[in-house]
Amino acid sequence: MSLAIKADPANFELPPSLTESLRGKRVLITGAGKDGGLGQAFALAAGLNGAESVGIHFHNSYSDGLETVALIEARGGRAFPIQADVTNPRDVWSIRSHVIEKMGGKPPNLLICNSGLSESGYLLGRAPKHLDDEPMAWRRARVRQAFVDNLRQSHDVVDTKVDGFLAMTHLWASEALEAKEPLTVVYISSRQAVDPGPGVPGYVVANWAVSILPKVLALNLGRNADQVTALTVGYPFVRTGMTEDYVDNERVYGRWQPRMLEPSEAAKSLMQLLSRPSDELRERFFQLEVDKAEGDGDADIACKWTEIAFGLQANPLAWSHGEPLKFGPSGE
Prior knowledge:
Blueprint: H1 16-19, E1 26-29, H2 38-47, E2 53-58, H3 62-74, E3 79-83, H4 89-94, H5 96-102, E4 110-113, H6 136-179, E5 183-190, H7 201-210, H8 213-221, E6 228-235, H9 250-253, H10 263-274, E7 285-292, E8 301-308, H11 318-322
Parallel strand pairs: 1-2, 1-4, 2-3, 4-5, 5-6, 6-7
Antiparallel strand pairs: 7-8
Helix pairs in contact: 2-3, 2-10, 6-7
């Protein structure tokens, strides 16, 4: 059967220094079904470079997802499809036995939480612009519909990213502890989490929330925290179905990078990061920097990892600390 997907396997060949980190890995990737998407790129990088097995999750993109599985298997890899709605706890639970069976009786030891959506774009806190000669009744109806539609998009974005990542973490971290198998969890975020852009407020908020998940997980695992290595990865603009319209618009991506990053380049960069020791990765947020390549050669960009350090600072307010409110027993 000829495949309709356009992904070129040659773009996902990794050097030996990066393939070693995939040996023996049972990989599960959410949101991996869309052709040309970031999740598919992760799946091809793992499945074509020695991973023991690759679970390719999709919700609606079943055609591309099944063809991605077929492409990996045709080239000697082991992959299998998983169809589920990551925002539905019953759906997530229903894949448990299937995944473990396909992975030889063991849970995944590399989980890449990649599922995500974006918004068509709206400015938070701003109503649509006035239209000339528009009757007030029409404007009220149009503004109300925009309000409903915009917030529905934000809800779906946050639901998929936050609820979906929580559900997959809760399931597979507990399975890893039960099976006494080490697990690495990668949360795919965005550079917009720390350097927001206008027009995608739900996307920014959801990706910001993802940054705290590794620490929350470690706190809840307690003395078992060393068994799970969780980290967050923030990408700049990657050429996918969500960004294709902006590939030639330097005003959108130009402040971060000289050109859009290809999915295969993003996947290779992640495999480089995952080749580092666990102690260098645990509970950290890593951002991929894309700069112009220096020196001779054919390379036009250079990809480098940077750690984003979050810090909290408590500043006492003099007006409150100088005259604190005082209460008696039981609030009297």
